[in-house]
Amino acid sequence: MKRADIQGLRAISIISVILYHIWPLNFPNGFLGVDVFFVISGYLIAKCLQNIGTNSLSFPKLFETILDFYKRRIQRIVPIYLGVVCATASISRTIMLESDFQQARLDMYWSLGFVTNLQSLFCNSKDYFTEVFSYRPFLHTWSLGVEIQFYLLSPILMFIINYFGNSKKQASSSTNIFPSIILKQNFRRFIFCSLLLILSLISQQFIYLYFGSSISFGFIFCRLWQFMAGIISYLLTNDYLIENEEKEEKEENNKNNKIIVWPYILAHYNQSDDIFNCQKQQTIINNNIQISSHSPSIENKNQINYNFINFLLKYLIPNIILILLIILLFFPFLSIPIYLRPFQSSFVVIFTSIILFLQNNNWLIYLFLTNKLFVWLGDISYVWYLIHWPTILFLKYFFTIDEFSFKYGIATFILTLIIAFIVEILVDAQIRKLKSFCSVTFLIGIFYAFCFFQLLPTYYSGQNERVAVTKDFDGSLGGRAVTIDVNFTRLIIDDIVKSPEGHSRLANTLSLYEKIRINEILQSATYEDRYKILPGEVLTNRWIGKFAKMVPEERNFLKAVIERKSRGEGKDSTTFLLVGNSHADIISRELQDEFKQNYSVFHMFTAPGCVPFYVPEHLSFVTPDHQMPIKACSAYSQLVKEAIQTIQPDYLFIAFRWYGSFEDQPFNDANNDEILGLINSFLLEIQKNVKIQIFFPAPNLLFKYETSRELAKRLWRGAELEQLHISYKEHLKKNNWSYQRLEHLNCQKCLVYDLSTHFCNSTNDRCAAFDETTKLAIFFDTNHLSYLGRQLARPFLRSLLTPL
């Protein structure tokens, strides 16, 4: 028989997870609902396997019990899981672009083996809190991987745990400090479980510190402590039952012997009885005189103590614990930094374990957990969990939704519930009715066959991977099949900018599939030469080495920092230094090429997500998938000033994004404006070390969509493209305060450049997101230039040389 309160806990957990996936910024702690599931699983596994390793089971019976356990778990979990995976793959194959489906296909391989949680060990994956904003329909299967791996280990684990409870030797008298919690003969079992829990919790912190959250988040041993908390909770309640039976037997013997006793308080677990009962019938003997429980003074005193403790532990504490658990899961103001999340998770696990331990049908919150709606939601929670994330993701993908509004979020929540209900009734309930395990095995085989069929290359994929048509862009490809990859994309784009005829020729030559595929790979084409060393270039480590010493904990961040030096064709000793973030990184090759006649040495020192001047924490840049690394960026700003002082460049080119935190700050007084003060302070300090010119950027264009991906999707669906462009007037209005600050720069050597003027047209009030003739994206995301955009920006960069 199911415990109704456990179903209620499942309902709370699944609701918190779904709300997190719909509104990750509004419910930042909802992911902790999975921790509640793990605790419940540990509790129920301990209950299912409570006789494993005990003397009551012979070896044949032990083998039969374990085999039956695996059969039940497989029938409950695997068929419906594979069915949802297969359906998800089929929909992904239909609506997703090839580049996105390639990632989904890779994720599907891992999900079919129930090892999604281990994917980050072997693949270069970001952590869960970043990937939740990406299009990965199998992302949520990591928790099923953890569950399955725990189920595989649980018979061995429970055998060892119960073995510790089999010893006929009694624990030492020191265990009397737990007289009503742990039976003396089970004390070693409790210590073993607690030790395993602590080791798992420590390993989670260790792996996080040394390998990052992407591995520690889903690794089974890092999650084992949560299952162990559930196991401990069950073992304690089981000890209560055993000890209570012994006490009831003693009580009956005492009644038969006509000994009058008075009960002391005992925490007692029972579905139908109060939480508290008598610990034991106590006979107080003083000088061989029996004291009856009818003594008024003793009776009144004990009755007062009983009522007070009964009120605390039966009503007040369970209510408070469940309220705290709900607050931790649902309230956004408790969002904390990632390195403190294990502590937050610890409270969730502790509170869940206590609720499982203290369950009883007489305390008020129990009525909340066991109402029919919550029990029903708990019953379908597994199916609801399986289908909710693909449903949310497909809606976001198809309609290009970055963040759900309240209305559409509620509609999505209800839609996932309706689909879960239908799948539960029509599929999952029928699977559970199967009596023969052979039928279950056959069904699993069918699902696996369909899943592997979905992994086959698509017709759409074939059209894009190898195009067997004549291409004659430069006279060398005629009559030959060519692969549309990064190199081919660059060749096409170079042909566009080479001559005015390139636009019309390509527009007439490229098919729809080719345009879609080229837009898909524009991001890769943009970053293709990021870490390549071209002739005359060398990677340097002078500032990165210092960077690593200043922020040793930012190992992943340091991998993206670029420090490079190259030789130009200038006849004198002119030096050029490029600093900034990813925007500087992206245009570095074009700057090198366009300016190479003017310098002898080109230095580059860029760090992603950072601006070259100091930014205090309250002005730091935060988006759903990116947060400015405050400490690392502070170190970068120091090293930039040091690099400028050391190199003494003739020309300093600064490129960075004017983040939203800058745009939102009103500009009223130039003398007291904080942002302008930070910029002017930086420029005042560095301009004495720059000999000729400082190029300083104006605000960047910011589009609503990731242009190259969205353009490819809309071309595939035949949807409207005009919405991808933005209004030039809106751009100027949005960045009005930033433009005003630029007018008050205190820098004689500064030349402000505005790249938006090159891609925006004031006549038709439009800033172009893509090239109208070829339908290829100028920006690959919301603000970074694609490879096409980089080439189209060359005339603008060249024009900056005019005043030189």
UniProtKB/TrEMBL annotation:
Check the record and name the InterPro entries matching this protein: Acyl_transf_3_dom, Acyltransferase_3, SGNH
Q: Which residues form the SGNH domain?
A: 569-797
Determine if Ubl conjugation is one of this entry's keywords: no
Q: Which UniProt keywords apply?
A: Membrane, Transmembrane, Transmembrane helix
**One Gene Ontology term, aspect cellular component:** membrane
UniProt keyword annotation of Cell inner membrane present: no
Q: Where are the transmembrane segments?
A: 77-96, 148-165, 190-211, 217-237, 316-340, 346-369, 381-399, 405-427, 439-460
Q: What is this protein called?
A: Uncharacterized protein
